[in-house]
Amino acid sequence: MSLHVALLPSSGMGHLQPMLRLAASLIRHQCSVTLITSHPIVSSAESQLVSNFLSAFPQVNEKKITLIPIDPTTVNTTDPFSIQWATICHSAHLFSPILSSLYPPLSFVVTDITLLSSVIEITENLRLPNYILSISSARMFSLVSSFPSIPSSIPKTSIPPQVLDSSSYFAKNFSDASKSIKRFDGVLINSFEGLEKECFEMLAAAELTDGLPPAFPLGPFLPLPFEGGSSSSSSPFMKWLDNQKESSVVFVCFGSRSSMSKEQIRELGSGLVISGYKFLWVVRTKVVDKEEKRDDLDEVVGHQVMNKVKNNDAFVVKEWVDQWRILCHKAVGLFLSHCGWNSVVETSWHGIPILGWPHAGDQMIAGEVTEAAGWGVCMKNWGWGINNHLVKGEEIGNKIKEVMENQTVRIKAERIGEVAKKTTEAGGRCDDVMNKFLYSLNKN
Ligand code: UDP
Ligand code: UDP
């Protein structure tokens, strides 16, 4: 009989997308999947993705829970995705009757790394093996698993600022997650040895010495065909890319939920102009996509940038784009990114250098992963965790120029791309690790 898994994703595209990519891979390896979704969903991007996923995989059983609202002031944040995350934790007891009543009975559960301490007791009571999905780097997992100690390889200044604020809800949950890790059966990581070799070696050593559960490097996770939504090769910006020279364009996108102040957007625009390179820029002024206005681009980016657009030297959009498709395009020569982990892993596969501008959370640690392997440059002092710190256009422009012209970084990026592609080939390391993981489950 095939293995039956229940998947428990957390809030935000950066959590949902890797869980669904994992789901597709488990289905390919003959598992039956139940997906547990928490409603109401925050962003249109998430709702769209779940709906596309379920249409593409009609054999997947979706179970919905209706979240029990919390008082947001108790979690000390105004970020809708973080409030949603805390609400899922608060409603986690609703998972129990679902997990216990599924038919055929479950073989195992996969839980998003931010939900650990809310879920572990439930699956222990049901005697269900439970695996963590680390949607972040192995390096980040090494921090979560050793917290409150900090691995010597991670500078204190790179740690997510909320983790260091011991009075925050985030820090409390992070610390509880850390304490619960050894009660899990393993951790599935969207990363690969070619990207974080030393870290995986450290985790393997900690499995022997400290009883950490085994780590399975299952990445890089590849996107599913329907993820791009409505954007296609005929999108105007894809046509624009077709007319650009190889590796000549700077692609700028800060993920699904990072916005910048009006002033910073203007400085970034002026930096892109100063760099002298052509650019494709995905502008985001709101944290939640539903609140974004579509018709104020001129006002947001200013006339200097709009002149470049009019002259065909730049393309600026304010919509959800198919980032993977853009990264596939040979015209892209550099990715100016916030270093969300999914973006980092995707870019590694394409062998494109990253100029990292971390904003929050695990993004500094992700930027360090790219720097350690030599294919990225991470701007640690560009507004990281510092409110109202304005990075000037000139500094941004000069840095873009410098990294675009850095041949060492470019060659290292190409190499990492070759390794990543080999890892995901049929019969490659990804398949090996997945088979090893499923074998360990069948054995028990
Ligand atoms: N993404 C996309 N189009 C967009 C913005 C983001 O396809 O306009 C995808 C991107 O490829 C990545 C994910 O959304 O897979 C964002 O995750 P990441 O971890 O990079 O950042 P987050 O959004 O969690 O900050
Ligand atoms: N994290 C964790 N346990 C928690 C909260 C966070 O392990 O209870 C880690 C996890 O790797 C996550 C990272 O901290 O990706 C940053 O969390 P944050 O909510 O800032 O960012 P997100 O991943 O939602 O963009």
Automatic annotation (TrEMBL):
Coiled coil residues, start to end: none
Keywords, comma-separated and alphabetical: Glycosyltransferase, Transferase
Pfam families: UDPGT
Gene3D superfamilies tied to this protein: Glycogen Phosphorylase B
Classification via CDD domains: GT1_Gtf-like
InterPro entries, per database record: UDP-glycosyltransf_plant, UDP_glucos_trans
MF (Gene Ontology): UDP-glucosyltransferase activity
Stated family: Belongs to the UDP-glycosyltransferase family.
Record protein name field: Detected protein of confused Function
Organism for this UniProt entry: Hibiscus syriacus
